[in-house]
Amino acid sequence: MAYHIMMTRKITDLKGRLQMEVQVMDFKEGQIIKFTLDELDKDELPEELKKYVKGLLPDIEDGRWLYNGNYYK
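Above: the chain's sequence. Below: its structure in token form.
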């Protein structure tokens, strides 16, 4: 797997809507990719990354990688 979720955080857009921002390390390209969950439906992200994140959506929504959040297994 070339990707690993580093952290997520809740942000607000200019209209005041709450969104979840995801920060992913791309080991193949040696870069950090930041995006909001609503960007998963757009064509800007690689398909492999979309598949990886969609597979982890329940954990993301539960706050597993939430910055300043608590997650206990």
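The chain is about 20% helix and 35% strand.
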